[in-house]
Specification:
The protein is α/β, with parallel strands linked by helices. It has helices at residues 52-70, 91-97, 113-127, 141-148, 202-221, 237-250, 262-265, 269-272, 281-297, 315-319; strands spanning 3-5, 9-11, 17-25, 40-41, 80-84, 104-106, 132-139, 164-165, 168-175, 181-187, 230-234, 259-261, 278-279, 303-311, 326-334. Helix 5 (202-221) packs across helix 6. Strand 1 (3-5) and strand 2 form a beta hairpin. It has two domains: 3-175, Stage V sporulation protein AD (Peroxisomal Thiolase, Chain A, domain 1, 3-Layer(aba) Sandwich), CATH 3.40.47; 181-334, Peroxisomal Thiolase, Chain A, domain 1. It has ten helices and 15 strands. It is globular, with a radius of gyration of 18 Å.
Length: 338
């Protein structure tokens, strides 16, 4: 049974493993540095569908089925699926996963959804409430632009602080067999609001939340950044990552030598014109479930912190002049050798 350690961190007492993952990505992403690591990529971002939203749903369907197929599991082998996305009422998840027939819990954590779904799946599994769970998330550049900003046809100029919403999805299968990369501890994030109102500067809105969660975990676990091979955030991009390092440095914590961010990794900033980097639920979902999971499996990474960040906004809140609160959830993951 899970045990709380410190103020906010929960230690899993059973060997809860990530036994399979799959990351899928769109055309622009397949032209980036991680192209060879995705399980599937698509030349047409419509994915043969009649709308961007249906295309995003297809991303989730494909990621989930690929993750199951890798370990020869059927949908009947999954007790519960936790999934979410950026669209209103999480329609990408609902319509993308409805054909699987798996008990479903919809989640919304904005771009932190990959960590949130994995976190809850691991706690459910550790408690004995289920034997095997799946965590899934997605985003799509065109569906996000339509909902949160302006129609793509408008051709508006993006600000230097803007990030590029990733067309991609990630899926992870988590069970209690003790196999795969093990989730050792989790820290649930707090809503952190530094009164940022610029919807084109997500990094600034989310960096304080990432700092808060990292500081809380390090304090609860009595560890330092040097104890880890990688402190991976997602997705602060270039601007948010710089802010995170500065905030933590002010508190006497230096993560600069072990930090990376999914929003910095997925695109080639110089060649692909993504301004401040990648963003969206599918950013850390596709990066973690492909590149990072592969490194853990090969023991090229052995002990990491995965902190996915989210901007808890909506078009309605922005139109009403509200600020953009941030959230960040953390998982401590080891390669299975300890």
């Amino acid at each position: 049974m899970s045990v709380k350690t410190g103020k906010r961190t929960i230690r899993l007492t059973n060997k809860i493993g990530i036994i399979s993952t799959a990351g899928v990505a769109g055309h622009k992403e397949s032209d980036g540095p991680l192209a060879d690591y995705f399980d599937s990529t698509y030349n047409d971002d419509m994915l043969g569908q009649s709308s961007w939203e249906k295309a995003e749903s297809r991303l989730q369907t494909d990621a989930a089925r690929l993750a199951l197929n890798k370990v020869n599991l059927s949908t009947d082998d999954i007790d519960v699926i936790l999934a979410g996305d950026l669209l209103n009422q999480c329609i990408s998840s609902t319509f993308g996963l409805r054909s699987l027939g798996i008990p479903y819990l919809g989640q919304y954590g904005a771009c932190s959804t990959m960590a949130q779904t994995m976190l809850i799946a691991s706690l459910l599994t550790d408690s004995g409430a289920c034997r095997r769970a799946m965590a899934v998330t997605s985003s799509h550049f065109c569906s996000a632009e339509r909902q949160f900003r302006l129609p793509i046809e408008y051709g508006g100029q993006r600000t230097p602080t803007a990030q590029w919403t990733v067309t991609g999805a990630g899926a992870a299968v988590i069970d209690n067999s003790g196999s795969g990369s093990l989730i050792k501890e989790v820290t649930i994030g707090k809503i952190t609001d530094y009164k940022i109102k610029d919807a084109n500067n997500m990094g600034a809105a989310m960096a304080p939340a990432a700092a808060d969660t990292i500081m809380s975990f390090l304090d609860d676990s009595k560890t330092t950044p040097s104890d880890y091979d990688l402190v991976l955030t997602g997705d602060l991009g270039f601007i948010g990552s710089e802010l995170l390092i500065k905030i933590l440095h002010r508190e006497g914590i230096d993560i600069s030598s072990v930090h990376n961010d999914c929003g910095k990794m997925i695109f080639d900033r110089d060649r692909q014109d993504v301004h401040a980097g990648g963003s969206g639920c599918g950013c850390c979902g596709s990066v973690f479930c492909s590149y990072i999971a592969g490194k853990l499996k090969k023991h090229e990474l052995n002990n990491i912190l995965f902190i996915a960040t989210g901007a808890l906004m909506s078009p309605t809140s922005s139109q009403q002049g509200e600020s953009i609160p941030g959230i960040a959830h953390l998982l401590h993951i080891v390669s299975g050798i300890s």
